[in-house]
Each structure stands twice: as C-alpha cells, then as structure tokens.
Amino acid sequence: MNNRIITDISNYIFVSDNPEIVDAIFLPGGSHPEQPEYAAELYRKGYAKWLITSGGVSVKQNKWPGVRSKAEIYNGDYQTDCEFFTDVLIKNGVPADAIVGENQSGHTRDNAYLS
Predict the structure, then answer these.
(1) Residue 55: exposed, middle, or buried by beta-carbon count in 10 A (0-12, 13-18, 19+)?
(2) What does the pLDDT look like over 56-79, one tens digit per residue?
(3) Within 13 Å and on the Cβ side, how many CA atoms surround 53?
(4) Around 17, how many Cα atoms within 13 Å sit in the side-chain half-sphere?
(5) Is 50 within the bounds of a domain?
(6) Which pLDDT belongs to residue 15?
(7) DSSP string of 63-96, one letter each residue
(8) How far apart are CA 30 and CA 11, in angstroms?
(9) Radius of gyration of the chain (CA)
(10) What share of the chain is helix, strand, coil (3-state, %, to 5)?
C-alpha cells in the first residue's frame, strides 16, 4: 500500500484542534476512563465551568458493561456510564458541584437529548 494513502487517511481522521474555553464539556457515556480523565485535565486548566456526564445502561446489554481499562484505579460498583464518569472526574480533581449528571440514556441520541 502507498504510504501517501495512509498519510492522507490519517490526516483526515485524526484532526486535532486546540482547546477553547467553553461553558461545559459534554461527555457521552462509555466504559473507558480516558475521555473523562482528559476532560478533568481541561477543567483543571480552566477550559470549562461544567462537565456533563451522560449515560445510563447499554440498550444492547440492558446493563452497564463495566470498566474496560484502568480497573485497578476505577473499581467502584458503577451501575451507569454517568456514575463511572463522575467517579473518574472526582478522582481526577473535579469538584462534585461542577458535574452535571444524566443517567437515563441508553444510546448516543438520548445522551444529547436528555442532557
């Protein structure tokens, strides 16, 4: 395969923007802590006043799938994406009163709608 093709695809897919100051950072659910860890870093640097953790249980599994990485750090009895992301944020220096949670959504559309 031509290296130019790989480079062009990578440049298209992996676009990066510099962070900007916003009112809130929206975190649609998941079971990997890297997204809320990065959001906590942005919060600590003053990029947002609020963090919105969104997510209930998987509509496919009818339960929360569990922590997928760093389970030795994030080992709570989480029932929803929202609970998990909130714990990650707090363990990474975000005060609880800066977190707004939505724990009813089961898929991405509802993450946005219910938040």
Answers:
(1) buried
(2) 998 788 888 899 999 999 999 999
(3) 28
(4) 3
(5) yes
(6) 67
(7) S-----S-TTT--S---SHHHHHHHHHHHTT--G
(8) 25
(9) 16
(10) 35, 10, 50
Cα separation, 115 vs 28, in Å, equals 9
Q: Residue 90 is encoded by which pair of tokens?
A: 């707090």
For the stretch 36-52, pLDDT in tens is 999 999 999 999 999 99
Q: Which domain holds residue 107?
A: 20-114
Residue 70 has a CB neighbour count (10 Å cut-off) of 13
Backbone φ and ψ for 57, nearest 5 degrees, come out as -115, 160
Q: What are phi and psi of 37, to 5 degrees?
A: -60, -45
Cα–Cα distance, 74 to 94 (Å, whole number) = 15
Do residues 81 and 75 touch, judged by C-beta distance below 8 A?
A: no
CATH number at residue 26: 3.40.50.620
**How many distinct structural domains can be found in the chain?**
1
Using the structure block, give the residue that is written with the tokens 């990650």: 88
Sign of CA dihedral 34, 40, 59, 80: positive
What's the token pair of residue 87?
A: 């714990």
